[in-house]
Specification:
This protein is an alpha+beta fold. The protein contains 10 helices and 14 strands. 25% of the residues are buried.
């Protein structure tokens, strides 16, 4: 199970939930904006035009108050000054006409009476027409004049300047209002989508950070109810994987532990058989038996170390990290490494300085032990092996360097993998040593590198730890 499988990777044409939600919200908004603008335009324009019509109505009512009815005689005693006052306007040109009961004009523009439709007493009519070659808005009012149901007609007309200005102002206002509303709704939609997706993004980041060594459940706080079932199912899967991995590690540890005793007996028996007199023909067989027992014991120990390292990685709280002085740790374990190096005819030396790291002493000792064993097994007879530690700036480090045959640069990256050995590797190693070193270094936040030794000879394994502040 790789991280890429857990995190997932969408193809370039895969739809995103964010885009789907935004399209579902914003596309209808594109349709609603012009409809909203039209509704606002109509709702705002009608009272504006009604207000202008009331101005015409006021002029007509003022004229009706001036009409003088004496029996059958109807006159319009309108002075020139009053007429000018009724027609005063800064924008439009206003004209009026008053017709008597017999159709005879009483005052104003007589030609305007031709636009008046038939009306009953006290009726009003508003319409647009043409007068003097210009479009005008016309208000017509019929009023009772004297007896016998006689009617007088009052017609007031003005050009459309104010109305056109009102229409433009209302149109701009409606478009501006609809645009502002659309922008606000779009911003709110994007913010709502971002807020709604934030728990999913957090959950996706948690899933992407998972690894075989870290299978923590995804936090379901804030996850939308619609996807909560999916996250719960994923957490259930992770729990089953954790249980399976734990069972696998427990099996490896138990098997390795159970193998240690019979393998130790085999080692002792093989060594005794070699040490006691025996037929010369049995010598090769006994040496192979002893070497196989040694290799099996080493493999069992490495499997135990690997299970222990993975257990620490899955549950760091089982044994909290503590300050560890690498110089002291290496010095205390040095005696165990000297005998194998002497038997191999090698010179094992130490260059140790004070270097404190935050970590687990057992695992760090295993790390150094694997590096020393690797050097002893592959450097060859007569090689010089140097174990060093110190601090570079504020970062502790340790290294194991030999002047043996070394490893070609193109093969070094492969040696970190489990059960991988160099093409020219001798000895009876299993290919687990450097893999365990890499796991322990990673658990401590350290970087391990395979480098060429001094003057390009041999191999140097350098482990750099994060600054500990010690």
């Amino acid at each position: 199970m790789s991280r890429s499988r857990l995190g997932g990777s969408a193809g370039p044409t895969s739809p995103t939930l964010r885009r789907t939600l935004l399209l579902g919200l914003l596309v209808p908004l594109l349709v609603l904006v012009p409809l909203t603008a039209a509704v606002i335009y109509r709702l705002a324009l009608t009272p504006a035009l009604d207000g202008l019509d009331r101005a015409l109505t006021d002029t007509a009512v003022a004229l009706s108050r001036i009409v003088d009815v004496q029996g059958d005689a109807v006159t319009l005693p309108l002075s020139a000054q009053t007429a000018r006052a009724l027609q005063a306007d800064l924008v439009d040109h206003t004209v009026f006409a008053v017709g008597g009961p017999d159709g005879r004009p009483l005052g104003g523009e007589a030609a305007l009476l031709a636009l008046a439709p038939p009306l009953a007493a006290d009726q009003w009519s508003f319409f647009e027409g043409q007068f003097g070659g210009q479009p005008v808005r016309v208000a017509v009012h019929a009023m009772a004049c004297g007896t016998k149901g006689r009617l007088c007609v009052i017609v007031v007309a003005e050009t459309l300047g104010k109305r056109q200005q009102a229409e433009r102002a209302v149109m701009l206002a409606s478009l501006a209002g609809a645009t502002v509303l659309a922008l606000v709704l779009a911003a709110l939609a994007m913010a709502a989508v971002a807020r709604g997706l934030r728990p999913l993004q957090r959950a996706a980041a948690e899933v992407a950070a998972l690894s075989p060594a870290r299978l923590a459940p995804v936090d379901t706080r804030g996850v939308p109810r619609e996807v909560l079932g999916f996250v719960d199912a994923l957490n259930g899967l992770l729990a089953r994987i954790r249980d399976a991995a734990t069972a696998q590690r427990a099996f490896i540890a138990d098997a390795a532990h159970q193998l240690r005793t019979p393998l130790a007996v085999m080692r002792v028996e093989a060594a005794q058989a070699l040490a006691t007199p025996h037929p010369e023909a049995q010598q090769p067989m006994l040496e192979r038996l002893h070497a196989a027992a040694e290799r099996g014991a080493r493999l069992a120990q490495q499997l135990l170390s690997m299970a222990r390292t993975e257990s620490f990685a899955l549950d760091p709280q089982q044994q909290p990290a503590q300050p560890v002085d690498l110089r002291q740790l290496i010095a205390e374990a040095a005696d165990r490494w000297l005998e194998p190096s002497i038997e191999a005819g090698q010179d094992l030396g130490f260059e140790l300085a004070h270097a404190v790291v935050q970590g687990h002493p057992v695992l760090l000792e295993e790390l150094v032990g694997n590096l020393v064993h690797n050097a002893v097994a592959h450097a060859g007879r007569g090689a010089r092996i140097t174990v060093s530690c110190g601090v570079d700036g504020h970062a502790p480090w340790l290294s194991v360097e030999d002047d043996g045959p070394g490893v070609p640069e193109e093969e070094r990256a492969l040696l970190w993998q489990r059960f991988r050995r160099g093409r020219d590797a001798g000895g009876t190693g299993s290919g687990l040593g450097l893999a365990i070193v890499a796991d322990i270094a990673r658990l401590h936040g350290a970087q391990a590198a395979l480098l060429a030794g001094a003057d390009g000879r041999g191999l140097k394994v350098l482990v750099r730890f994060p600054a500990s502040g010690a």
